[in-house]
Specification:
9 strands; endonuclease; archaeoglobus fulgidus dsm 4304 fold; globular; magnesium; single chain; metal-binding; Endonuclease-V; 6 helices; DNA repair
Length: 274
DNA sequence: GCGACAG
DNA sequence: ATCTTGTCGC
């Protein structure tokens, strides 16, 4: 059954300790395993692939943020700023973009490693509210279970909306790779396991380093992505989904398009706004 | 005091 | 994240 948890939405007015407590609560209700009828990675990118249920191809949404920063110290009476965050969402189905939306909200707190969702969560939830289609899966820029309290931004957003979600990060927040990550061939996945800094038994599988792209014969190397379950998706499926959606580029297509749309929409806001 | 960590 | 030039490789 679908049970959204708006009561667990990020609240920037909470104290740091309260935010961390909320994250433990979120990790507690999060499901780091596949849904019963699990999603089939191959059906996300291949329009012709038959789904086991024979229904419509699944809808995947990529979510990414850009920022409108003032960097102007004048007029900031009470220490606050006019900086804003813009969250962009690109929904795709059978390899085609079917909808794009975005939302802008004021930035209330600074970036603090481990508390990213409290800074960027509001615009994301607002943007998701604008969506007319209902994605079967969401890919967020940032961590899911690879997080000190197992509640990265992908997990937080996934639990609040109770939708399947995956975290796609470009650098490793915590956890330890089971093998070296130097110059891996495309398609390689290396387990990332919990260390003593993570709220999970040491050795717990948190996610995978996923090499979506690599140069053939050169002196230039591509770094892997760090993929982890957000909610209602297991680590293996999360890695497979990212590989299936990353044809030709390092980032999976929905996230790559959300990234460029976030930049594009920022321009529209700047000239149309005050 | 040291550690050092998504975007 | 954001601010930017140049350099590399396809």
């Amino acid at each position: 059954m679908m049970t959204p948890r708006p009561d667990l939405a990020p609240d920037a007015t909470l104290s740091r300790g309260e935010m961390e407590t909320l994250q433990r609560e979120i990790a507690d209700v999060a499901v780091f395993a596949d849904d019963d009828p699990p999603l089939e990675p191959e059906t996300l990118s291949n329009p012709l692939a038959a789904t086991s249920t024979g229904g419509e191809p699944p809808i995947v949404a990529g979510v990414d943020q850009s920022f409108l920063l003032d960097s102007d110290d004048s007029g900031d009476e009470d220490g606050g700023t006019d900086d804003r965050a813009l969250s962009a969402v690109v929904a795709m189905q059978a390899g085609e973009v079917i909808e794009r939306v975005f939302a802008v909200t004021p930035l209330e707190i600074p970036y603090i490693p481990g508390l990213l969702s409290f800074r960027e969560g509001r615009p994301i939830l607002d943007a998701l509210e604008e969506l007319s289609v209902e994605p079967d899966l969401y890919l967020f820029d940032g961590s899911g279970r690879i997080h000190f309290r197992q509640a990265g931004i992908a997990t937080h957003m996934g639990v609040v909306r109770d939708v399947p979600s995956i975290g796609v990060a470009k650098s490793l927040l915590c956890g330890s790779p089971r093998e070296d990550l130097e110059n891996l061939p495309a398609g390689t996945t290396i387990p990332i396991e919990a260390t003593d800094r993570v709220d999970a038994p040491e050795g717990t599988l948190l996610g995978y380093a996923v090499q979506t792209k690599q140069y053939e014969s050169s002196s230039r190397y591509v770094n892997p992505l760090y993929v982890s379950p957000g909610h209602r998706v297991g680590p293996e499926t999360a890695a497979e989904v990212v590989l299936a959606l990353s044809e030709g580029y390092k980032l999976p297509e929905p996230v790559r398009l959300a990234d460029s749309y976030a930049t594009e929409a920022k321009g529209e806001v700047v000239d149309g706004g005050e």
